[in-house]
Design a protein that fits this description.
about 300 residues, alpha/beta, Transcription Regulator spoIIAA, Arc Repressor Mutant, subunit A, six-stranded mixed sheet, three-stranded antiparallel sheet, about 20% strand
């Protein structure tokens, strides 16, 4: 079983790690983000590179089964050279898994306000270059890519990630945790008091921050979209059997994939469909263009 805790470097203490290890947590995901002090300041984070090294040293003392580093690219002022330095410094610490995420501008943050005011802009061409540099560098250092943003040493792929992308079931515990179980998908309350009340008295659908009753076609569409982000791709016939998809819809998807192949964005290997490097660069755009299942 895999039990992951996400934690920031400045939240790491010996006491906290001891509690986590004794409770059975076996995977730590450390929010490194960047090793560059100036970029860290731009993100509004209050830990520097020294704090990351200290946190990692404490983590490895407890012999967790796996350690992941989260890294961010696309930070205002970040160059490709700076991004490469971040990845190389992460590799030097020998984590088992590295996740690389493009910066998103969340509402009610200083970066979002600067973007809204026109002080910052989103450069999609540069973002693609950041993606591609990670896809080149990290595999050369022993971290095989298994999804657009995720790299791992052999046998250290994140079990929860793969389980989620394949649209299986999971239960999330704690405030803001997400679950998918018994045909439903929900997000626990982020408010601590509301969450504690639900733990004591039980949750009804209206108590969750998000709640959705899923359909087989909804699961199928998500399995297709997330599956194409994975290097192994998807098998349409398997998805069709698992989610009882109509032959008309499968044919529509096959036609769409044929167009992607003609544009050099996808390849077919026996029964599996996979995106090419350029296809992965455009994964989000491809997801938007994917045919939707029409009921009736």
């Amino acid at each position: 079983m895999e039990w992951t805790i996400e934690i920031a470097p400045n939240e790491i203490t010996t006491e906290k790690l001891s509690v986590l290890a004794n409770a059975g947590v076996n995977r730590i995901s450390l929010g490194v983000q960047t090793f560059d002090p100036k970029l860290m300041k731009a993100l509004g984070r209050d830990h520097g590179p020294q704090k990351v090294h200290e946190a990692h040293s404490r983590i490895i003392e407890y012999n967790f089964d796996s350690v992941n580093f989260d890294l961010i690219f696309g930070i205002p002022g970040q160059t490709l050279e700076m991004w490469e330095r971040d990845m190389l410094e992460a590799v030097e610490l020998e984590p088992d898994h590295i996740s690389t995420y493009c910066l998103t501008f969340e509402e009610d943050t200083s970066l979002y306000y600067r973007l809204a005011k026109g002080e910052l802009s989103i450069d999609q061409e540069k973002e693609a270059q950041f993606y591609e540099r990670a896809w080149e560098l990290l595999p050369s250092k022993g971290y095989q890519q298994y999804e657009v943003s995720n790299f791992a040493r052999p046998s250290y792929e994140c079990v929860h990630n793969v389980n989620t992308w394949e649209m299986n079931e999971w239960i999330g515990l704690g405030p803001s945790a997400c679950s998918q179980f018994n045909g439903k998908r929900w997000k626990n309350p982020s408010n601590l008091e509301k969450w504690a009340e639900g733990v004591s008295n039980g949750f009804s659908p209206k108590d969750y921050d998000e709640f959705q009753v899923m359909t087989l076609t909804g699961f199928a569409e998500d399995a297709l979209l997330f599956g194409l982000r994975m290097n192994d791709g998807v098998c349409l016939s398997t998805l069709g059997e698992r989610f009882h998809l109509s032959s008309d819809y499968l044919e529509e998807v096959r036609d769409f994939v044929s167009k992607l192949q003609a544009e050099g964005l996808a390849v077919k290997n026996e029964q599996r469909i996979m995106l090419t490097l350029q296809g992965r660069v455009r994964a989000d755009a491809i997801a938007v263009e994917m045919p939707e299942y029409q009921i009736g």
